[in-house]
Automatic annotation (TrEMBL):
Name of the protein this chain belongs to: Periplasmic binding protein domain-containing protein
Assigned protein family: Belongs to the bacterial solute-binding protein 2 family.
Compartments it resides in: Cell envelope
Entry's Gene Ontology cellular component terms: cell envelope
Amino acid sequence: MTFLRRRPFRALAVALATTPLLLAAACSHASDTPAGSTESGSTKALPKTLVFSPLSLAPPALKGLSEGVKGLASGQGWEVIVQDPNFDATKQVQQLNEVISSGRAGAAWILAVAPKSLGDLIRTAQSKGVPLLVNGKPDEYGFSGPQPGITFDYIDYTAGGKALGEQLGKCITEKNGGTGKVLYVASQEGTAGKQEFDTAAAEAFKAAAPNATLAQTVVAVDRAKAQTDIGNALQGNPDLAGVFSANDEGALGAIGAFNAAGKKLNCVTDFGGNDEVLKNVKDGKIYASVALQFNDDTAQSFNTLVKMQADPKANGEVLIVPQKTFTQGS
């Protein structure tokens, strides 16, 4: 799921997103004549064909997402065309332009490699009345709000960071008397939402456990490196009482690092919530995970595209990926 968040994959891959999973500053609105209309006023119905363009099909998370989209849409009578730009922004635009310009596409779901590269494509889709769903906020595409025929779908990083910090503070209060040193495992520079997430997490932790101390911050690029870096941090701070991580790799790396050092980690919280993380929550190895609910987001995204097809000139929506906090007892 980290792929849905990561902005570097836009040069997200988020990213879908990651991002993926998302326009030039000036994009024209759709024309006053609906797509497919003739001068007599008759309207040609859009095909029930959904084009899904993720960042790439190489990451298992994105391959799995493509299968989920295909299963959901096919079950409702839609044909699904899955494209693979392989993190190439130019290739993504070319692939999408081909199916939209040819009239094959009835709607498109785009996890943009480079949002601002989609300006001409968006104008083409608007002129043809083909609704789009893109990942990210409107301002990532140069817009100030909802646009005709375009729905934006983004992760609320401020809310996620706040929940992450609150849960670690709660754990430190319950299990360590509200005191002790903690380690923050951040996402790498350029990750979507990094600044707002990091700030919200730190402020929420301080509010929830004011007598605890943030001793150090490390960056998690992948699980193996995160385990090594956290192990090094643990050598310098052998009395660490907790870890909160901005991604799954950091949380799992923290468990590995503490295990390798023969130390018990009572308080670790995570943002992301992949299957392995949630199993660790259930087993009591991770105190809490703020999990992104991508299944729910897939359903709301597809349903929104179906609704938009009926009136592609109307402004789309601004959707937020649902989040849910899991603890051992939940």
